[in-house]
Amino acid sequence: MCRDDFGQGYASLSLLVRLPFAMVKVDRAFVAGIGRDLKAEAALRAALGFGWEVRVSLVAEGVETEEQWAWLRAVGYPMGQGYLWGRPQPLERILYP
Questions:
Q1: What is the pTM of this model?
Q2: Catalytic residues
């Protein structure tokens, strides 16, 4: 099971404690703050530490620049998704290129 948009709305720490997630996608709002918002960067590091402790894989959402991806890799994020690699595609295009 994967939790999307972690850190926003109903995606709280209590939800991660109660349900058996194997992967968490950290909300793009935090990634957007890389390089200009120390609190966003602290939240990304905190999520990473939590993921390591409870053995949950993390994906950084909304990666748009090489600089963001370099920062995320430097602090230990194993995966990312976003416009840096491509725009969302319809399922039919992915399954039947």
A1: 0.78
A2: 61
